[in-house]
Amino acid sequence: MRIPLPWLDEFAPLEGKDAAGVAAALVTVGLEEEAIHGSGVTGSLVAGRVVSKQAEPQKNGKTINWCQVDVGSAHGAVRGIVCGADNFGAGDLVAVALPGAQLPGPFPITARKTYGHVSDGMICSERELGLGEDHTGIIVLASKGIDAAPGTDLIPLLHLDEQTVEINVTPDRGYCFSVRGVAREFAHATGVELADPAAVETPSATADGFAVEVDDTNPLRGQIGCDRFVARVVRGVDPAAASPAWMQRRLNQAGMRPISLAVDITNYVMLELGQPLHAYDLHQVAAPIVVRRALPGEDLVTLDEVERALDLEDLLITDSPDGLKASRVLGLAGVMGGASSEVRGATHDLLIEAAHFDPISVARTARRHKLSSEAAKRFERGVDPELAPKAAERVVELLVRYGGGVAVGEVTDFNSLVAPAPISFDPAYPEALVGVSYSPRRVKDLLEAIGCQVSPAGGQDAETSGRLGAQAGAGDWLVIPPSWRIDLTRPVDLVEEVARLDGYDKIESVLPAAPPGTGLTTSQRLRRSVARALADFGLVEVLTYPFVGHETFDQLGLSPDDGARQAVKLANPLDSAAGLMRTALLQTLLGAARRNAGRGLTDLGLFELGLVTNPAASLAPVPVPPADCRPAPEVMEQIFAGVPAQPRHVAGVLMGQRQLAGVWGPGRAADWADSIEAARVVARACHVALEVQQDCAAPYHPGRCARLKVAGAAVGCAGELHPEACRNFGLPARTSAFELNLDALIQVSPAVVQAQELRTQPVAKEDLAFVVASTVAAGAVVEAVRGAVGDLAESVEVFDVYAGDQVPAGSKSVAVALRLRAADRTLSPEDVAGARNRAVKAVAKQLGGELRA
């Protein structure tokens, strides 16, 4: 919300404070400063008298004016200035920006040669000074009532020295979406007296007022969608009347564009008081106006010229031009009006609407139609229900004063407001909760300062009653909040107001003592170890949104009956194309890889740790628990039973070059083996052994995919992505990936890990090549050798797999590097030979292989 300081000063005297001082005062009562805005005009902006104006046609078809302008003796008297506008003449007083000045943009002014002349300044339009949108003509100061000597400083005369403070309004402080509300808070902060602009007399409802009916009960909340509707009629408004300059200036300063007198006045009053209003062309509206919910198939063209299909929950303003009840939609209540009844250039009779609508209904309609209007911003945060007749009276007064209209005696005031329930409040509760000593008198004064009515509950003196240490709800006082504070509903809300107005700085900062604990859980420690290990492996951690669409499943090549397609559907997705929860990390991680590849980063490795959602075939219905207390254990069990499983996975993608080319060689591309090794890195970080078996699963290449197991149970897959998947995601060819169920690894991770003793004896090296059937996995050869050698095997790794003319058909050669070392001695030649022979026999017996000659 932007608050022009002169406007604020009308209701709460600033007493010499500048924008920074006002912002600092508002911070003390909880209104955070966003920015301080000025006109952006600095330097010399002076009044200049046009001495002469000579038109000069140019070769490009444009005509410029070579002007001699008197800017006063203090600024060099007469200056030559080139100007393209033609709405002024010799003798006119204009606004001149001299060299050294700066206009909004920023746009510095200098003397420069153009069109064959040296233009020694600039004659300004409204837009160039930030005073409006008109850039087609020069400001002639006489039209603004300014008659000044040449050289007079125009910055104060054009109000360009006025500042605006922008504040952040939190959802519970909707009343601060107005100058009135901010003035009240400024008065609280500084102690100045508030001049409430809403303290006006309003006429009572009349029998001949414009007919209004409310035919609605909110189906979701059991509440009426409109509990106050005020309608006033003003006739004979001059359609050509312009908004006064001061009003246009304030609208611009507040961030709104002046449009026409009627629209400007309703916007001005909304900014001033916080009550959204709407003006109808009276001759385009037929009585009665009916406030109701939308009917099936209805639509509306709103003021932004967009045709919108209406939802059954939308609250509407309608009328009956043909005698049929509620047959035409005039607008979305509290959000935006319709084009059929808008005020036009020939409108001279107006119907003014000031109503109060249900905040939740307005909020849902605004989000449903993606219409974040100024009215909706205020209604969804809560508008003072008692403000409608006062705001309507203010609009009528301004239309009569500046539009020449006549306020007729027809007044409509539909009012079904329910008086707010008093809050039982103990004056000792603020001290018990905040820890600052507040006397009952001080508590009462602060509550009354915000507009509360405080009275004793049992006949005691409201200034002296109270029991220290009493609990909330066992109150001695009855407190009725003011109508503009709909957020005050509980004793703790009143305590917050006491603490806020008395000063947050009076509350001492006391850090609670940290309870003793065991530090990170086992799961947390292992997750961090996995992340560090993958980063050391050369991968970069990313975080992706967990939302996907059916198109993602198609791009991955999942079959129609693949279980990964069984995803949880979101009721209110951020993006209609991504309305499902992911069932695997690769579904979103490949999208991150695609964005990097699209920006030229094709040699890259990414990984992510995150949750996936795997719904069961059927889930139990979830009860709605109470919000005011912790649900009972049986209710918690029902809630958890209705929530789908959300295991934590870890996944990675490797694409492009794994090792870049350089003086050391040509480099190496990432392949399926790197993805399997990355999966092994994860397993080692969790202190578990990973079994690798050949498999075929989407989205992996059929011949380059491995199923990863731990203790016989599948925990993931790794390998090269299918070429079609690479093309669908725009990834380099032969991109590889892996994904593991990290929770499953953590579950089987040993609670205690035995550190291995450092062996100082020399290592013995044996390289063995076995000829086995082509269907035998290389991992099976490794396991056979490791099992035969036993504790002497420090490592067994495959370094070559060959299938060709030098081995029999249907066979392949698997070469392993066997490294032997004992913990207690140096291995003898006999020890090494024995280990070698046991390995050869084991491969022959278990796999039918033989040592390659």
| Spatial strand order of the main sheet | 27-30-31-37-36-35-34
Question: Which ranges are low-confidence, i.e. pLDDT below 50, for 5 or more consecutive residues?
Answer: 462-474
Number of domains: 6
Q: Shape, please?
A: elongated
| Biggest beta sheet summary | 7 strands, mixed
General description of the model:
The chain is α+β, with helices and mostly antiparallel strands and 853 residues long. The protein has a 7-stranded mixed β-sheet, sandwiched between helices. It has a 5-stranded antiparallel β-sheet with strand order 5-4-3-6-11, with no helix packed on it. The chain has a 5-stranded mixed β-sheet with strand order 13-16-19-20-21. The longest helix is centred in the last third of the chain and has 19 residues, at 829-847. The model is unreliable at 462-474 (pLDDT under 50).
Short overview:
This protein is an alpha+beta fold and 853 residues long. It has 6 domains: 2-38 and 162-190, Phenylalanyl-tRNA Synthetase, Chain B, domain 1 (2-Layer Sandwich); 45-144, Nucleic acid-binding proteins (OB fold (Dihydrolipoamide Acetyltransferase, E2P), Beta Barrel), CATH 2.40.50.140; 212-415, Phenylalanyl-tRNA Synthetase, Chain B, domain 3, CATH 3.50.40; 423-506, 2-Layer Sandwich (Phenylalanyl-tRNA Synthetase, Chain B, domain 1), CATH 3.30.56; 522-625 and 632-748, BirA Bifunctional Protein, domain 2; 764-851, Alpha-Beta Plaits (2-Layer Sandwich), CATH 3.30.70.380.
